[in-house]
Amino acid sequence: MSQTISEGDRVLLYLDRKRTYLVMVEKEKSFHTHKGFIQLDELIGKEYGTCVTSSMDVEFVALKPILRDYVFKMLRKTQITYPKDIALIVMFSGAGPGSRIVEAGTGTGALTTALAFYVKPEGCIYSYEVRQEFMETASKNLERVGVSEYVELKNKDVTEGIDEQDVDAVILDLATPWLVIPHAYSALKGSGTVVSFSPTIDQVVKTVEALKENAFVAVETVECLMRRMQVMKGKTRPETLMTGHTGYITFARKTLRQ
User: Fold this and answer.
1) Domains 10-65 and 69-254 share a fold
2) 228: which residues sit within 8 A by CB, 6+ positions away?
3) Could you read off the pLDDT of 205-249 as tens digits, one per residue?
4) How far apart (Å, rounded) are the C-alpha atoms in residues 23 and 7?
5) Which member of 91, 123, 179, 184 has the greatest number of CB atoms within 10 A?
6) Do 108 and 144 meet the contact criterion of CB atoms below 8 Å apart?
7) d(Cα 108, Cα 49) in Å, to the nearest integer?
8) Rounded to an integer, what distance in angstroms lies between the CA atom of residue 172 and that of residue 184?
9) How far lies 186's CA from each of 95, 190, 215, in Å?
C-alpha cells in the first residue's frame, strides 16, 4: 500500500489527541481551522507522517487514517459502536477473510464498516436495517472507507426472518435480539457464532434464555470498560474521565440438533 499522498486520498490532520481532522486531499483546496488554514495540495507527493505548517505557523501531522479514525469521524444518525466493543465483537465472531456474516441493525454503519474491512476481499456482510434514513447514512460511510462492495444493505426487519443460509456469524445490535435467535439458528452453519450487543441487562437475560432454548452452547456475556492513562514523569495516573458502560456483549455457538 502506497505511503505517498495522492490527490483524492484521505488524510488525518493531527494537531493533538483531542483535535484531529479527516480531510480529502484536493488540488487548489485549503482546510481552515482555528489554528489557520492548510493548503491541501501541498501534501500531494509527500509521505504520510509528514509535518505541515498552517498559515498561523502551527504544525500539524498528516497521518494515514486507520479504521479507528474512520469510525470516530463517521457521519452519524445514531450512536456508533465504540472501537473497544467492535474489537471484541470481531474477535469473538470469528470474522475473517471470506466470512459471510449477517448483521442487524446497520445504524450508522460503524460495526458494518469494521466487519467489511475484515471479511474482504471475498467475504460479504448482509446488513439488515428497518430505517431507510439510517441505511443512506451508512452507505455514505461505507463508501468513504472504501468497503461498500463487501456489504449488501437490506431494508428489512430481521425479526421477521433471515434470507441467507450457511453463514458464519449473526451479529445483532437491536432492541429485541431474542426475537432473532431462532432465525439465527436456521441461518448459521454448524458451530457458527451469534453475537449480540445490548445496553441493558434485561435484554441480555432474554437473549441468553433464547440462546439456550435454541441449542446454542458456549454462551458468554462480557462488558468491556476502557480507561486511559495520563502518562507524565512523576504524575502518571488514570484519567479522570473514562469510556465506561456502553453495552453488554453476548456470544454463543450453534450446535446441530440430534
Assistant:
1) no
2) 238, 239, 242
3) 999 999 999 999 999 999 999 898 999 999 999 998 887 899 999
4) 11
5) 184
6) no
7) 29
8) 10
9) 19, 10, 11
Give me the CATH code for the 10-65 domain, please.
Answer: 3.10.330.20
b/e map of 123-158 (b: 16 or more CB within 10 Å)? bbbbbbbbeeebbebbbebbebbebbebbebbeeeb
How many C-beta atoms lie closer than 10 Å to residue 72's C-beta?
14
In contact, 31 and 40? CB cutoff 8 Å: yes
DSSP E strand stretches across the chain: 10-16, 19-24, 30-33, 36-39, 50-53, 59-63, 100-104, 124-128, 151-154, 167-172, 188-198, 216-223, 229-230, 237-238, 248-254
End-to-end Cα spacing for the chain: 49
Q: What's the sign of the alpha-carbon dihedral 198, 202, 205, 206?
A: negative
Q: Which amino acid is located at 258 in the chain?
A: Q
Residues 62, 46 contacting (CB under 8 angstroms): yes
Closest by Cα among 46, 87, 45, 51 to 66: 87
Which residues, 6 or more positions from 58, have their beta carbon under 8 angstroms from its beta carbon?
15, 35, 36
For residue range 140-197, list pLDDT tens digits in order. Answer: 999 999 999 999 999 999 999 999 999 999 999 999 999 999 999 999 999 999 999 9
Of the candidates 127, 82, 80, which has an alpha carbon nearest to the alpha carbon of residue 101? 127
> Where do the structural domains in the chain lie, given as residue ranges?
10-65, 69-254
Q: What is the CATH number of domain 69-254?
A: 3.40.50.150
